[in-house]
Amino acid sequence: MAAALLGGASREDAVAVLTASTSGDEPLLAVQDSLRAQATAFADPAVLEMNVHHPAMDMPGAQLLGFRVGDLLVHSWDLARAIGADESLDPEVVAVVATNIEPMRPFIGQVGMFGEGPSGTLDENADAQTALLDLMGRRP
């Protein structure tokens, strides 16, 4: 989806990319192809300044890059949890992603990509990783 958005796709086109099944019989190859397409699209510094029509909201390419980093970070936690691996995330990346995603707090639960959004039940002393995961609809 990010590569499509950076290529000028509309919000509707981006949603279509998200809902299309592209993994076929080779899911690993599909992921690798997607990551390569994103890396190629983000390699042009000009895309960081352009405005894209993300399904959540219009944003500059630099913010989309931040969202992609956040998405990959949180999905690495999802995968670690699913397979019983170490769920610890890099604290520096967690801090950057939390800063990037914070503007979405008021409506993140309505976007449809982050579960119900924040639970509203976290203790104010929750660690940064737990707070980020909660904000992004996870209940560690």
Tell me what you see in this structure:
It is built from 6 helices and 2 strands, in the order αααββααα. It has one domain. Helix content is 51%, strand content 4%. By secondary structure, the protein is mainly α. The longest helix is centred in the middle third of the chain and has 23 residues, at 61-83. Strands 1-2 form a two-stranded antiparallel ribbon. The protein has helices at residues 2-6, 11-19, 27-42, 61-83, 91-101, 128-135, and strands spanning 51-53, 58-60. α4 (61-83) packs across α5.
Question: What would the average pLDDT be, to the nearest integer?
Answer: 90
Order of helices and strands: HHHEEHHH
Category by helix and strand content:
mainly alpha
Count of DSSP helices? 6
Helical percentage: 40-55%
The biggest sheet amounts to: 2 strands, antiparallel
Give the CA-CA distance, first to last residue: 27 Å
Strand order of the largest sheet: 1-2
List the helices and strands and how they pair.
Blueprint: H1 2-6, H2 11-19, H3 27-42, E1 51-53, E2 58-60, H4 61-83, H5 91-101, H6 128-135
Antiparallel strand pairs: 1-2
Task: Name its key features.
140 residues; two-stranded antiparallel ribbon
Sum this structure up briefly.
By secondary structure, the protein is mainly α. 51% of the residues lie in helices and 4% in strands. Strands 1-2 form a two-stranded antiparallel sheet.
